[in-house]
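Whether sequence alone determines local backbone shape is best considered at the level of individual chains. When preparing material for the folding task, we compiled for one chain both its residues and its backbone structure tokens. The sequence in question and its structure tokens are set out directly beneath this paragraph.
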Amino acid sequence: MSFIHTDILGELKNMANILLLGARLRREFAYKTIFNRKDKLIVVDTPKITEHQFFSIADYVIMINPNNTKKIIKAIDDIHLSIDGVITFEEEYVPVVSELCKILGLVGNSIEASFLSTNKKAMRDSFTRANLPVPVYKLIRNKEQAVSFVHEVGFPVIVKPINSSGSIGVTKVCNEDQLLFSYDLAKKYSKNVLIEEFIDGPEFYVNSAFYQGKHIISFVSDRVQQSDSPYFVEYGSDEPTLLPQDEQNNIIEMTKAGVLSLGIENGLTHTEIKLSKAGPILIEIASRAGGGNQIDLIYLSTGINLYDIAIDICWGKEPKVKYPENRRGCSIRELASEGGEIHDVLGLDSSLKKIKGIVDFLIYVPPGFKAKKPTSNSDIFGYFIITAKNSRISKKNSQLLLDSIIFSTDKGFQKPFY
């Protein structure tokens, strides 16, 4: 175990001592939010991760595994700091945050709520008990049970590990050969596997905030529709949704009921809902912020910073926030390719000048970088964000920029894969 004390905040008056478990690329806005609030930031993560440039804004970096509760307690004792709030934006550390909040007597969610929000089978059981609409599902322990389930509900189906995030190990299955492959894939990430019916229809993200069981605010975004690939990869979203207000209200009410059924009382939640012909179907709820740059999009669209709200909540301060009267359109698109060594990215010079509203564009392809055809969110190697007067325009301009990008690879020229 080792510590780094950067002391970059100097003599600034700190509002609270915030313990952050896990830090990743694409969460820079969260770290900057904490810095701008003048809170004291103590980050816990492995040495490899803590090489991230944004750790220069942390007061302390504790280089240990964030899943080790006992070592974290000892570490914060060693630096003689009183912790006011514990928070994470990463799925795998949600249970540890609950454990630490219980030990330290801080605002958080129960250990049971964290379990229910990270175990997909237990989560669906909770939704079912609350009479919320979910896909037909079953926990399977062998391939024979998978085949039996398909005989009952038919293809296509979704096969997934019960406790992974980032769409890792999740596949859409259309025939029996794919089924056996998908079962083996999911088993690599989880002892047990969940199989469920495929729900056809558009998908929506709902990013929400709750304090002591009270709903604070929710934002509904349109998820970019999946390609024909059997893998589930988040290729982007548009904020705000183009759904009529009454349908948005129905989705938000379903989200609130789902959160209540899991026992989540404090912090941010990320909900995925599909709109079928029969109405909205609840897919999953995570007890954390939406992944990637979803919180950035909401801020660019509304001026409301959900990271700021989350930090208030974690140290026991009730957020005061109102829905904005006007919202700009904001779209994000993730970048991936069919695979191969990326030599160059073509078509950008003229597009970046012609297409309006590009506020962020990042491609991280070091020399010799070999992309792979995406099977999960971890295969994404870039993104861009576009704002506009409304989300119809930001969506249109995003497609124009996507269409202009060409990857020069050792396998030839490729368009972005999505």
